[in-house]
Every structure is written in C-alpha cells, then in structure tokens.
Design goal:
This protein is of the alpha/beta class and 285 residues long. The protein is built from 9 helices and 14 strands. The structure holds zinc ion.
Length: 285
C-alpha cells in the first residue's frame, strides 16, 4: 500500500475560465493550484511530475504570465514530508508542459518515466517553423532537450501505451492527441481505493461534472489534439474509477484542500494527505 500526498508548490489566483473549460469565454477567472504528488511505499519515494524551477529566467517569465505566486523549490516542499529531492527514486511524468516537467535536474537519483509519443511528439512539433507553434504556450524547449539527454543517459524510460505495474500496483494509462501528444494518467491500486492522478486531462472538477453539474464533459481549454479525444479520456477514467470521482485527483483543483485532510503552511502553500498506509504517521499534524 502507498501513502499519497498532494504537494502545492505554487498558486494561481487568476486563470481565465476559458482556458480551464473549453468554450467558457468571458466567464471570469479561477484559482488554480500548481502541484506534484508524492507516492511513498514498497521501498519507493515516487513523485508524479516535477513542478517548475522558479529560479530559471525563462520560468520566471512564465510564472509572471500565468500569475503563479508563492513558488517554492522541491527542497523546501519535500521537507514538509520529511524528504529531500535526492530521496526521490522515480518520477512519473504525466506530460511535458512546463508546470509538470521543468525540474528534471532537481532529482539527481531519480529514474524518469514518460510516454515515448509525448517526448517525440514535442520534438517533432519544435522543429516545425515558428508559425506552427501556437499550441506550444505551456512548453519550455529546454525541458525537452533535458529529457532527451536523460533518455540518452538511460535515466528516462520511454514507455509506449498502457503499462501495468510500472512499479508494484501502479499503472500508466495513455491519453493520445488531446491535451498533449501522449499524456499519461497514473493509477495507484491501494487497498483503500484506486487513486488516479490525471495530470491535465482535467484542470477542475467541472471538466468531469459539466457546467453547473449538468453531466456534460468539458475538455480543458488547451490542447494539441481534438476535443473528442479529451472527452473520451474523461469518460474512460470515470469508467476505470467506477464512477467514484473523489478518487480522481486533479492536481490543479483547489478544492483538494477541503476534500482531504490538509494543512496550509506559512509559505501559503497546501499539503493534502490523500492516503496513509497502515502504520504510517500523518505528516500534516
Ligand atoms: Zn498543468
């Protein structure tokens, strides 16, 4: 069994609703959390995504554009759960956008895992002429260069399609040509529940539940593929979760801090304790 914590590393006060929920223009702004997830158990400290490197000049500009506040380093964030970045032995990357894969250099002892089509899809996109780059707005090319370097060095595993037990009781579920070329959802089979980290397949609950809870899936407002692929992925996940939406963790959704036992620290950032393995002490007391 794994213990699971959702760790906020930055906070956005004003994200246009139209970018969170496709087609919902002139509907104001939403708050978002920027997070990664720690999954601990079976001898592993696994991180789902890396977050950003707020000390990098390019990232600073992206943080400013995206209204990201209170950024803190993985060193600072992981200290809250008693770890350092060097303790992380696996990093499962949901997709290559900068808020999920900007900190590859921070985890020196980690083996990274990404979908092959995700990495190579961005390589192909990046070598197109600039006029094709509108869907690259959440991409930081240096991260793709670094991911390729890690792949060449054998520290990044490129998986193809669905993978059962990438680590004990952890599966990877691909989502092609939607939000990105090949995002992946991480499914954790725990005795208490099957937990899902959906990456950016959804930004907020309404992507699953619909506008005003009308039950009509809403794709996120940013993608390289089709809205139908995004909707099909949402539906596939609801089926895999047997309709239990509270087991589908949306990392950008600020309601996580009310939904799960959580603590807000002096840095204004939250930690949620999603699942605790037997005998594991709470880290938020
Ligand atoms: Zn994101």
């Amino acid at each position: 069994m794994y213990s699971i914590w959702l760790l906020e590393y930055g906070h956005v006060y004003r994200q246009p609703v139209g970018s969170v929920l496709a087609g919902q223009h002139n509907k104001g702004f939403r708050e978002l959390s920027f997070t990664y997830m720690l999954v601990q158990g079976n001898g592993h400290n696994i991180l789902i995504d890396t977050g950003t490197n707020g000390e990098d000049e390019t990232t600073k500009k992206l943080h400013e554009r995206d209204d990201v506040h209170y950024w803190q380093s993985p060193e600072h964030i992981l200290k809250k759960v008693g770890l350092t970045p060097d303790d992380i032995d696996y990093v499962l990357i949901t997709h290559a956008h900068y808020d999920h894969m900007d900190n590859l250099k921070a985890f020196k002892n980690a083996q990274f895992v990404i979908q092959k089509k995700e990495l190579l899809g961005w390589v192909e996109a990046m070598v197109k002429p600039p006029k094709f780059r509108a869907p690259h707005m959440a991409l930081k090319p240096d991260n793709i260069f670094e991911a390729l370097r890690l792949s060449v060095d054998g520290r990044m595993t490129l998986v193809e399609g669905e993978v059962k037990n990438i680590l004990d009781d952890i599966d990877l579920i691909p989502a092609y040509d939607g939000h990105t070329f090949a995002s992946q959802i991480v499914m954790i089979h725990n005795p208490d529940a099957n937990w899902f980290n959906v990456g950016d397949i959804a930004y907020v609950n309404e992507n699953f539940t619909g506008i005003g809870g009308d039950g009509v899936y809403v794709p996120v407002g940013l993608g390289v593929g089709t809205q139908y692929h995004m909707i099909e992925t949402l539906d596939d996940l609801v089926k895999r979760a047997e309709g239990k939406l509270d087991q589908i963790i949306i990392g950008h959704e600020t309601s996580n801090w009310e939904k799960f036992p959580s603590k807000k620290y002096e840095d204004n950032l939250w930690v949620a304790e999603i699942s605790l393995a037997d005998g594991t002490a709470s880290k938020i007391n």
